[in-house]
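Deliverable D5.2: sample structural annotation.
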Amino acid sequence: MAQPNLIRETQGPECCTIIGRRILHYSSLPSTNRAAFEEAESGNPEGLVIVADEQTEGRGRRGREWFSPGGKGLYFSILLRPRCRKENFSLLPLVAGTGVANGLEKLGVKDIGVKWPNDVEISGRKVAGVLVESRKIAGGMFAVAGVGVNVANREFPPELGDRPTSLLLATGIEYSNDEVLSLLLGEIERYYSDLCLGRNEQLVSELRRLDVLRGKQVTVSMGAEVTGTAAGIDMTGGLILETPDGQRHVVSSGEVEMVGPVSAEE
């Protein structure tokens, strides 16, 4: 159900056979995730991508607002109807986050990392985030993967402090949104296709390479707050947390904050 401010319709890169077969570009939307949910409930097939030049009600994880000013960032959502085991749905944020990180590396961006589960950083500052939401309907499960990338921002609201950055601030290069989108969709599809085939080895390998938490003291909020040392990523994509009592826990979801320096082993 197209909105009245639809600008154009395009297709993704040739390497994509699922994601980006149809891309709808809007001048403004309250939320690309919300628009993608509406398209899903109208019966649209997976792979549809919704892009907006700005979001007036952009959301991040845990209900946070995502700063989405016009002309500064890339904001898009992908409609997915995964043909995989239900338990693998939890890997979708990792698929999207790792795909974004790899795509930015292909642009030539240096010092890219992933802060588990799905924040993408440049030199320790957040450049992109992912919000994956799923819903069950009569025809089965579907998911929407929303991605926000700070592309041309020169400044951010004071309340965000020095946490965020943009591609422009980090590299000095002015990238076009279309160029960035094309690379990101290709990389996300690569890991998504593997997931649908029951393969996650490459995904986990890339997460381990990009992991910025390993060896650091972190607090994980998963109902209760637990503090320990991030000890890597397990084969299910979970964060391995070593607590002071010597126990190892595998965290499948939760909010993670760094609270201490890199360990001597890093």
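Annotation notes: The chain has five helices and 13 strands. Residues 216-262 form a domain with the SH3 type barrels. fold (CATH 2.30.30.100).
The annotation will be released with the project's public dataset once the embargo ends.
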